[in-house]
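Thread title: Can someone regenerate the structure for this chain?

I was given the following input by a collaborator and told the matching C-alpha cells would be attached. They weren't. Posting the sequence so someone can regenerate them.
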Amino acid sequence: MSEQDKPTEAEEIIAESQQIRESQDVPDKIEDTNPDAETEKKTRDVIFVGTKPIMTYVTATLTQLSARPVVTIKARGQRITQAVDVSQMIVKRMNTVGYIIKDVRIASDSLLSQDGKTRNVSTIEIDIAKP
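Best answer:
Regenerated them for you:
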C-alpha cells in the first residue's frame, strides 16, 4: 500500500465512528413532533472522542461538516473535556466560517465494570451546525 492509499487519521476516526454507530441499537422510529427532526437525524454524523490528539477530532469534524449540515461530537467519562475543547476550537477558531453549537445533551449511562459492579458514566453530545 503506497503512502497516498493510506487513510488519514481523520478518515480513520470517521470509519471508527461509523462502525460504532452501526453496532449500536437504533430505534425504528424517532419520537418527535418536528417532522424535519427525523430527516435531520438521518443526515447527522457522529464523531466519538477517544484517546487520539484533539486536532485529529477537529479535522474529522470539519471534514464531516463540509458534507453534512449537523455533526455530533460525542464523549463519555474523562473524555468529556476533550469533546468540549474540540467544539470550542471549531466554533471559536473558525469564526470566519461561523459554525455554531446547535444543541448540547448530557446524560448518564450505566456500565458494567470489570469487577462486576454497575457504574454510572457521564456522557455528552454536542451538535455543531453550519449557520
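Helices lie at 9-23, 35-43, 54-65, 80-93.
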